[in-house]
Amino acid sequence: MDEIIAYKLKFHTPLHIGAHGVGYEETEEILHSDTLFSALMSLWGSFYDDEIEVLCKSSPFIISSAFPFKGATYFFPRPMIRIGKQSDDDLETGKKLKRVKFISLDLLEKMLNGEGERLRFDEVNTFQEGNFWYLDHSASFSGTDRVFSEREIPRVSIDRMTNSSDIFYFSEILFEEDAGLFFLVRFKDAGVRSKFETTLRFLGDEGIGGDKRVGKGLYSIDIEDGFHISVPPKAEAFLNLSLYYPKEEEFCNGILDGASYNLISRKGWIHAPGAMSLRRKEVRMFAEGSIFHCLEKEVYGENPCVLKREDAPGLKHNIYRYGMAFSLPIVMEQAR
Q1: Is residue 26's pLDDT more than 70?
Q2: Which of 41, 63, 68, 71 has the fewest CB atoms within 10 Å distance of its CB?
């Protein structure tokens, strides 16, 4: 498996990540891979003369979505596999297990290697309303620990025609001092790494997410080279850690055979120089934590075009949404 590099984003100001809903009332808890990729590409041209459309259409690196970390412990989305046989017999335990959104790296490794059904879930090894699950020897967490807190801030909008006011709420995430988000990268072209990291640092100074113009979403980065994940030497399936948009040929070749997945709709607006506030085509993608049949390929997915240049006056190039899979081998029999 290609070398994996981990980038930890340590936020210095609150973060708002757009979610489905009206206005700003909801915020995501993770930073999806397509959002992160788009933010990087929007700044890349400020430093380099690379053809942005070429990079967007065929990225020289594969990135995961960004997930929470606390201290030295990395948390990943819970894979869509059967976990612990006791949850099938114990209704209450099953309900508590369903609350788990994120699992520690050592739990992930056990699940990747086919030990999911042998794991025993214990609520004692969870925190933050049961959303985070870890092995008892992996870290010294307590029930009162948190990775982040969410708050709602009231705001007022003014109608330009009538001058009438309306209150709405803006949700944002505040990370604990020892916590933040991290994502993983595989570079297909090692020569592009320095450009990637320069752009990533600049993005931290600019901010990511909503309200970055007023100082939200600012971060600094820590880098961990040679990030190690213990995976099975051979597997018939892979776990996906990004949003994934398969090629048609992948569907035809059986990518969904025995698969276990969730779907997510991605839409929104672009804000490009010379072409502000343009709506992108909505696409449906496979969510993080989904599991698919291996096709003996190194790279899965593609970046679909969501807005063509000729359809938007002032747009300099076609707009693409990142849809490459960040895959890890996993034993197939566990899939739900």
Answers
A1: no
A2: 71
